[in-house]
Glycosidase (candidate division WOR-3 bacterium), 326 residues
Amino acid sequence: MNGDHQPLLRRVANNPILAPRDWPYPVNSVFNPGAVLLPDGTTLLLCRVEDRCGISHFCIARSRNGVDNWEIEPAPVLTPDPVNYPEEVWGIEDPRITFVPELNKYAVAYTAYSRAGPAVALALTADFARFERLGVVMPPADKDAALMPKRFNGYWLMIHRPITSLGAHIYISRSPDLIHWGRHHLVLPARQGAWWDASRVGLASPPLETPHGWLMFYHGVKDTPGGCIYRVGLALLDLNEPWRCVRRSTEWIFGPVMEYERVGDVASVVFPCGSILEPDGETIRVYYGAADTTICLAYTRLSQLLDWLEEHSVSSCDIPGESIIT
Ligand code: BMA
C-alpha cells in the first residue's frame, strides 16, 4: 500500500496521542481536531468530542511540543447552541482553523448538523475563549470547509464540499464580507469507478502556502462491500488563483493501516482536519482522527511532499479520458 512502502507521513510512536480515556469528563470519542501553532509556540488542538448522547462539541487541548503532555480544558469551549442556531441541533463537528492576519483572528469553519443535513458554519475568535458565530455560510448538504487566510482580488475564498446530484466534489466560493457567498467553482472532483477517491472527496486540513502553490491534503473515500475506506491524497492549487488545481496525486499518501485506524466507531478512517508547518518551513505535523475514535499525529516534510507530487500526479484535477463534470 502506498504510504507504507515509502511512507511520506510517519506516525509518532505514542499514537493515539489523545483518546477518550484522557478526557476530564465522560465522552464517547475524540477525533478530527483543528490545529494551530500559537505565537508562544504552544500547539492548540480544537478537538471534536462526541458525547455519550452522540452529539459533538469542541474542547481544547494544549501541548508545548505538540506531541505529548496535553493539557485538556476541564469543560467544552464551544457547544451546540440550537436555540440561537437551530442548524446545530445535532452537534458541531470537524473544525478547521485558519489564522487571518487582516482580522488578527482565527476563523473556524465547522460542520453544523441538523435534520436538514450537514451545513458549513463559520466562527471567529481571537483567543479560543470567546467565539463570534457568523452562522451558516454554506447550506446543506455541505461540509469539509476552511477559509483561505487572505483575500484574492478583494474576495475571501472558502474551500468546501457540497453534495449535489453530480456527486461530492471540492469547490471554492467567494465572498466580499464572509457572509454572502457565491461564484462557486469546482476545484477537485471525485474520480470514478475503482479509484481510491471515487466515492467522495473533501478538504482534509486547510491548505499550506508554499512558493509553488497551496499544498492541500484532501480525503478520498472508496465504498467497498466491507464499508468505506477514508484515505488522504495531495493536490497543489495555484498560488494566485487557488480555484485552479495545478496537480493532483494519482495515489493516496496515507491510509488506515494501524489497528487504531482500522478499528473504532467507524472502521478504516484517517481524517486530518489540522496540519502545522513548523517555523523551519519544512516540518509538517498532521493531526488526524483515527477510526472516529482517537486523535493521532504523523510527521512529514514539505520538500518531500512537493517532490513526490511532481512524480505522482496528473497536471490537472481531471483525469484524461474521464470527463467528470461538464
Ligand atoms: C465524514 C465526516 C467525518 C468522519 C468521516 C468518517 O463524512 O462526518 O467527521 O470522520 O465521515 O466517519
